[in-house]
């Protein structure tokens, strides 16, 4: 079978991997679509190959495909099932695992990550534990499922934490794949969306995705622009999806008194002055990291039932042999969602 390998220093190659067979509690998945995610860049750009315990690991943590073989002990899945794969695996016994949050597993040595410590979805096939398989609604495409496998459902979970309603104005900082999905979901909920980004291309995509107003920091102070759009109050809520110190600080400063701000973008550092930024403004500051298997299922059903056009922001589709080229383009900051597709 063919699959991607990160060789270090932003070099990706497609190589031959051994054929796979599922363990008793696993399934064999034929990949139909696998998304590229900004969080892959750490491994892609690292000086060293993507390995775990000295062995090369296939990347890709946004897999979506079809079950083609069952392990002998698998009971709740069938050959032919269309599934989205939740890219974490834990002990499956602790409180977090039992509620679908396997990435929070209390047994550290049991925590696994598909695309990191375990082989991921950038290959013709992959094996995965049955507990990580979430149904893909019949009316959703495989590439929409791949988008939901990480970026889109991360946005959905953050909106749930913010408890966004149709009465609110929400400013979303960063209109990459996570921010664009948040824009679509929040628009369907009824909120007014202020999209913030330095890229005019991304802002156009945000407008096409339902944003009410667009803010580009190149046109002046972000906080001032957002307050001008909100009668001087600031946004009811802000969602930060860029993971930068400046955008985190501006997200907090752009939130109105008694408002809420949620951080989704990972990495980096930020320094706040607790009294003027948070305490004296009665600000609720939240963090949101990915989602549970139940959250993934809810996001998929919401997308299906509300006809959310997530596929409208997919800008790059490649086959497995073209994946290294796609990574080069994606790593330059190209707008939209990138996926690898199979027939």
User: What helical percentage do the residues reach?
Assistant: 25-40%
Taking the sheet with the most strands, its summary is: 7 strands, mixed
Number of helices: 11
CATH homologous superfamily of the largest domain - what is it?
Medium-chain alcohol dehydrogenases, catalytic domain
Radius of gyration, rounded? 20 Å
- Count of extended strands: 19
The H-and-E topology, N to C, reads as EEEHEEEEEHEEEHHEHEHEHEHEHEHEHE
Mean pLDDT figure: 97
Helical/strand content category = alpha/beta
In the CATH hierarchy, the third-tier topology of the largest domain is known as Quinone Oxidoreductase, Chain A, domain 1
Shape: globular
> What is the correct CATH architecture of the largest domain?
Alpha-Beta Complex
Distance between the termini: 15 Å
Could you tell me the strand content as a percent range? 25-35%
> In CATH's first tier, which class of the largest domain applies?
Alpha Beta
Q: Which segments are poorly predicted (pLDDT under 50) over 5 or more consecutive residues?
A: none
Overall domain count: 2
Describe this structure as you would to a colleague.
It is a single chain. The chain has 343 residues and is α/β, with parallel strands linked by helices. The chain has 2 domains: 200 residues, Medium-chain alcohol dehydrogenases, catalytic domain (Quinone Oxidoreductase, Chain A, domain 1, Alpha-Beta Complex); 136 residues, Rossmann fold, CATH 3.40.50.720. 27% of the residues lie in helices and 27% in strands. The protein has 11 helices and 19 strands. Helix 4 crosses helix 5.
């Amino acid at each position: 079978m063919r699959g991607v390998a990160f060789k270090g220093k932003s070099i990706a190659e497609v190589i031959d991997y051994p054929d796979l067979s599922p363990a008793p509690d696993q399934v064999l998945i034929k990949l139909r679509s696998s998304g590229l995610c900004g969080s892959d860049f750490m491994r892609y750009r690292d000086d060293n190959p993507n390995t775990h315990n000295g062995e090369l690991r296939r990347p890709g943590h946004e897999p979506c495909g079809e079950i083609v073989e069952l392990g002998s002990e698998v009971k709740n899945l069938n050959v032919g099932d269309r599934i989205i794969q939740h890219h974490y695996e834990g002990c499956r016994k602790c409180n977090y695992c039992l509620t679908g949050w396997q990435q929070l597993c209390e047994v550290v040595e049991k925590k696994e990550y598909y695309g990191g410590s375990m082989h991921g979805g950038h290959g013709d096939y992959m094996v995965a534990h049955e507990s990580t398989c979430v149904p893909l609604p019949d009316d959703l495409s495989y590439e929409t499922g791949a988008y939901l496998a990480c970026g889109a459902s991360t946005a959905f979970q953050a909106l749930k934490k913010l408890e966004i309603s149709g009465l609110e104005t929400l400013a979303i900082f960063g209109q990459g794949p996570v921010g664009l999905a948040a824009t679509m979901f929040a628009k369907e909920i009824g909120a007014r969306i202020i999209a913030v980004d330095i890229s005019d291309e991304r802002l156009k995509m945000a407008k096409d995705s339902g944003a009410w107003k667009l803010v580009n920091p190149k046109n002046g102070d972000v906080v001032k622009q957002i307050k001008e759009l909100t009668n001087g109050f600031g946004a009811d809520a802000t969602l930060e999806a860029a993971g930068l110190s400046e955008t985190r600080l501006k997200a907090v400063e752009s939130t109105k008194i008694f408002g809420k701000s949620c951080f989704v973008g990972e990495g980096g550092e930020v320094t706040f002055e607790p009294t003027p930024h948070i305490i004296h403004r009665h600000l609720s500051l939240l963090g949101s990291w990915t989602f549970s298997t139940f959250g993934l299922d809810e996001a998929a059903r919401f997308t299906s039932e509300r006809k959310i056009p997530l596929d409208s922001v997919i800008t790059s589709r490649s086959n497995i042999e073209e994946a290294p080229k796609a990574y080069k383009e994606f790593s330059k900051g190209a707008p939209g969602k990138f996926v690898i597709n199979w027939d």
